[in-house]
Structure formats: C-alpha cells, structure tokens
Amino acid sequence: MYVEKTSAPARKPVTVPGLKAMKAEGRKIVMLTAYDASFAAQLESAGVDVALVGDSLGMVVQGRSSTLPVTVDEMVYHTAATARGLSATLLVADLPFMSDRDVPAAMEAATRLVGQGGAAMVKIEGAGRICEVISALAERDIPVCSHLGLTPQSVNKFGGYKVQGKTQDAADKLFADAKAVEAAGADLLVLECVPSALAARITAELSIPVIGIGAGVDCDGQVLVVYDLLGLTPGKRPKFSKDFLAGRDSIQGAIGAYVADVRELRFPGVEHSFS
C-alpha cells in the first residue's frame, strides 16, 4: 500500500550543539522513539526534536519479552528506515545488548549505525567500564547519548523493571555515574525511572542536556516510546507514559499534543513520576 509522506514546514535541522543550546536557554527538548520511515515522518511533521531508534523495538515491534535479543543488524536496518523519514529531526540509535562489550566492538557497531544507518548519535547504557567506550567514541567525533537509571539491558541484574536510585546510596551512585559519563564525553543523558528530586538534581548539575522518562518534569526534555504514546502497547501501560491518542482523531494530533505538553510543562505530571 502506498502511503504519502506527510509534509512539514521547513525547519532548521536539530544538531548536537543545538540541543545543548536548548538546555542553556531553558527550552524543553522533545524526544520520541521511531522504528520506520512512516512513523519518522509523523515525528518530523510534529516538530519532534530527537527521534530515537531504541532497542525497545525488540519488545514493541518484535513482540519479545526484553530488549536483549535485538542485534546490531536489526538496529542498522530500523535506523536506516527511520532516517529516510527525517530531514530536520536529529536521529539517535541504540547500541544493542553486548555490542558495547569492549571498545572495538562498540566502535564497529557505532560505525555501522552512523555510516549505514544514518544516525547522528548513538545511545549506550550504563557507566563504570562503559565510560571507556564513551571516551573512545567521543574521541572519534561520534556523539554519544548515555542512559542511566533503569537500563533495560540490565533487567536480569535488577530483577525486573524497577525504579532506580531510591535509597541514599543508590542515589549517590547514580549521581556520580551521571557526572562520570559527562566527563567521559557524553553529549546527552537519558534518565529512566528515577525519583524526580534526584533527576532534578542531576539535571541542574550537568552541562549536557538530560532527557527524562519517568524522571519528572524538571529534566531538560522528555522521551516516550511512540507505541505507548498511542496506546498501542499490549498489556499494562507504564506509569510514566500517557495515551495521547485518547480523545484525538489522528496519530499526528496525538504526537502534536505530546510535543506541546512537554514544551509547556504539562507532561509529565506527578502521576507519571516517581518519588
């Protein structure tokens, strides 16, 4: 079936330095996942700043129980498809499970995601040993988005999808990890499922933008899985998400409402956050 690509008014392309400028100016950054050209075109038309090809595709597209089985080949395929639907929105792609096991492996995966997939930035979970990988990528001018808090690739270690940083020791470690990934050269940080007060503290202390998902309204921006936003994900919807399609008659309207609510600080509310 032929689907006409949604046209959007021309806008200035979003860049990595541009994201940092948005933080400095207090303008909220809007991020949303996409896994193909058609959804990417909807994000582009709605004015989304950053499109994320997440390894979440393993769960919401492939129907798997976790992100762990997703391969580099699959990420490259979906990243390239998504890139074809974008012109101004900045494209970020996940490094899938164990593709960051050492610097050479991460370099090979990132090279493919950028060179073949068209990503402008790669996302990597964790800190600690991962800081060496972040530094190596940054030294070669590959922009990096770090991901801390609930990192889905660590689901077996965590014993499930649980809020992170709730105790003082855990909060102190998460804060130290955030400072460490910034020092290693990360250009962006995603904080997932952490108490709002901790996320606010990290956001205030870091010079790089901080994007929240279940991390409160005080982050520099927000990200959601597009299928959650549209109420398409089977089963119970995550606490931090919202069905923006409810009461609206189009996908474009739902994404546009999300963009407006993030920019105007209407989303997330306290009901989408953790204390």
UniProtKB/TrEMBL annotation:
GO terms for molecular function: 3-methyl-2-oxobutanoate hydroxymethyltransferase activity; magnesium ion binding. It holds the Pfam family Pantoate_transf. One of its GO terms (cellular component) is cytoplasm. Mg(2+) binds at D55, D94, E125. Belongs to the PanB family. It is found in: Cytoplasm. Its cofactor is Mg(2+). One of its GO terms (biological process) is pantothenate biosynthetic process. Pathway: Cofactor biosynthesis; (R)-pantothenate biosynthesis; (R)-pantoate from 3-methyl-2-oxobutanoate: step 1/2. Catalyzes the reversible reaction in which hydroxymethyl group from 5,10-methylenetetrahydrofolate is transferred onto alpha-ketoisovalerate to form ketopantoate. It is an enzyme of class 2 (transferase). The active site is at E192. This is 3-methyl-2-oxobutanoate hydroxymethyltransferase. 3-methyl-2-oxobutanoate binds at D55, S56, D94, K123.
